[in-house]
Structures are given as structure tokens and as C-alpha cells.
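@channel sequence for tomorrow's demo:
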Amino acid sequence: MKVLVVADAYPPEIRSASDLMSELAEELNARGHQVSVLTSYPAYNLAHDSLGKHFDECMNEGGITVIRVRTLPHHKVNYLVRGVAQITMPYLFLRTLQKYQKGRFDIVLVYSPPLTLAKIGRVLKRSQKSRFILNVQDIFPQNAIDLGALNNPAIIAFFEKMEKKAYDSADVIAVHSEGNRRFLIANKKIQDTEKLRVLHNWIDVDSISSSTHETDYRKRYGLVGKFIYLFAGVVGPSQGLDIIIDIAQQAAVHKDIVFLIVGDGMERQRLEKQTVSKGLKNVVFRPFIPKKEYVSLVRSVDVGIVSLTSKNKTPVVPGKILGYMAGSKPVLAFLNKESDGNDLIKTARCGVSELSDSSVDRLVEVTLDLYRRRTELEQIGKNGHDYVAKMFSKKMCIDKLETFFSD
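C-alpha cells (generated this afternoon):
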């Protein structure tokens, strides 16, 4: 089948959407599908080796046609600028697609956020009779309302109308957890619930387990002899990483503990200033690293941190949880009570999950609990690896996705 994957992020950008969509495109290509990717030009979350690199608008990458579109700034900008950029994005994408498209697409798979890209699926379904699959990761605009990014009733109504159009026009709506499915049904977001399916985000466990690329990040970052808690990823408002600064301040008496934050985002500069103002020596910031280095980074630390502010009210499961599990590292999660990540960690017995609105004293207590259980960490990490290999393998999840192509 001819498949078009639509997403605002794709390699070399470093983010969970980029990883998922590139792995999906590569796997579908390997299975004999003719795959094209429509995405934005790489400008954010780039590792050092990708900075300044030129990409043609249309490139063949391992048999996959990748069309990259220059858009308005849509990351690391204020909400107004981001909103305008996301509203204009589908029009820019469609205009560029027309220059390179040859024949009709059988399947159009759109990754949301941003929800605005659903317009591409709707247009191609109407004009080409393509089957439109909408992969919903964040429930928008609800998550933006929860975070305080949207509070104008007229703008909220505008995006809710867009949301309804997206859900009504999609042939299949895939969400990444059972909690997300229940949320959409309970809030009457979808009229035809038969089109609503659970498709877990996957992790390429085999690739991670077999990786031979080794960099000693303890040595590179000057952290030899330290007990390292790692947060790797986007440093934005949704993550609520003030938690780490608060914990680090109380945990400073343990001289061998360090909190390593690898990534970038809207909140990084503010958090760095806060760290300096408090005189904290146990919080270390480093830039994004290439995807191929991620396994080495995870192998170099003791515990992986996942965080979502309690302002989130939807059942989102951060993709970082699966990454740490696949890397056999215990997970320390600070999550909103609605997140399905809480049950996942408990079921897999792969770490500790605490509500992110708990008292700082409680957050410090659970953090130090893993530090004191150092002799158990290897087994806890193994629990996570074994569970994710069984329940979230790339093959299993994409096998399920392929059934959406025809039913």
C-alpha cells in the first residue's frame, strides 16, 4: 500500500514523536509498503552533529520519501506564536506535498499533536478516498486548557470545533492507553466509538539490547562515582521539572547524588537560572545528544526520571518510561493522578511512581528510597525490560496498526 505519514517531527530532531514516526516508516517500508513522510524542516532539539546541516525539501532516505516543509517557529516560542504556526502548518504541508505527490495514497496516518495536521488527513480522504488514521498522543485542546495555555472561551471553542472535525472525519482514532480511550468516551468526544482503538506506543527493545555503541557518559560529564538520576527529553511546561530542583535542594546532603538533565525546551533557561540562584551543585544540564547515543546515556546512569505536572488532567503515558524500561533502568516517576503511567510502573514492578503534587518531603523520600535500595536496582531494571519486551515490542504494535489499514 501507499502510505503517507504526517508528523511535525522526524529525524534528525530528537523527540518521542520523531522516534516513533521514523521507526514506523522504516518498519512499514521493510514490510513492502511504499512510504512517504510529510514533516517540518528540522530546526529544534538537534544534536551537535546535525546543527547547520542542509536537507533538501524532498529526499529519498533508505527507500522512504521524506518531504520536509519550512514552517513558522512552533517550538521554544510563546503560545500565541506556536498557535499561529500550527494553524498555518497544514496549508504549508499540503502545498508542498502537491509538488512531489505521484498518485493517490491508500493510507494517511497523522500524528497529533499538533491536532491541526488532521486537516491533511481530512483533505486527502475527501479528494483521494484515502483511509485516514489519526494517532492521538495528547488530547487537545483539553491538555492546553489544563496547563493554562488556553483560557479564552472563543479560542477554546475554535479548537474544540477543530477537534470534533478531526475525530468525525478519521476512519480510525488510535490512542496509546486504555485510560485515553475511556477519557474520550466519558467526555463524549467521539460519536462513533467503534473507530476508537488502543495502540500502545512501542519501543525497539531488540535494537536497544543489541546496541554496541558505547560512550561513557559518567566520564564525559565528570560524574564518575556519582549516583545519577537522569531526566532526558524536552524541558517544557508540561514536565514540571521544578520538582527536580526542589528535590535536589533537600538531597544536597548526599554528596554522591546528582540529577542530570539532558535536553532542551522552553523551561530550561529558567531552571538553569534557578539552579544557579540556589547554589545547587548536584543538578547538571547538558544538551540533546544523537539518538544513537541514547542507549549509552541510559546505561551510564542509575535511575531514569519521568515527570508530568499535576496540571495535566489526561491519562498520558510519557514515552520516556518505555525507554528507561528497555534500557533496564529503574523508573522514578512523578505523574499526575490521571496518567496511566502510574499503573504501568506498578504492574511492571519497574520502579516507583508518586503523584507530582505530593509534598516535597514525600518526593524526596521516594527519590532517596531508590538510592538506599541500590542492591535491588538491577532486578527492578530487569523487571521493566522483561515487561516492555513482552507488551510493547515494535513488531507487536505495528502488527496491530497494520490491521487498521483495512478493517
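heads up for whoever presents: The chain has 16 helices and 14 strands.
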